[in-house]
Design a protein that fits this description.
rod-shaped; 61% helix; single chain; 120 residues; mainly alpha
Length: 120
């Protein structure tokens, strides 16, 4: 409405007004059509808001990374336990290691896998 006349406009039309006045009183007839945003912020308020937004985004990334690392640690620990068991079984067998080439090769391979897992 402009004065006594109703004016048609595009529904996506938006009008932004900016003022330095600190009056917070909006007439009730206008208040239903507008959104008042109070932009009076100090530098520390802005820093706090930006830090809050940054931390919200980083927290999710860090949590995902943490879960990935915990899963990798768990997998490595299980693999180490399995390799240790295989080594113990190979060493506790009745085979003479100095004369059994396949057993020596198997132990060398297990040792290599163990060292690779430790490095991760």
């Amino acid at each position: 409405m402009v004065g006594d006349h109703e004016v048609e406009c595009n529904p996506s039309f938006r009008l932004y007004l900016h003022t330095a006045a600190e009056s917070h009183e909006i007439p009730a007839a206008i208040a239903t059509y507008v959104l008042m945003i109070y932009f009076h912020m100090t530098r520390s308020d802005i820093e706090e808001e930006l830090l809050h937004r940054f931390m919200a985004k980083e927290k999710s990334r860090v949590d995902e990374e943490k879960m990935g690392l915990l899963q990798e640690y768990s997998d490595n620990a299980a693999q180490l336990t399995d390799l240790e068991t295989k080594m113990k079984n190979c060493l506790s067998s009745n085979v003479r290691l100095m004369q059994d080439l396949p057993a020596i090769k198997k132990l060398a391979e297990l040792k290599k896998q163990y060292e690779e897992t430790i490095e991760r």
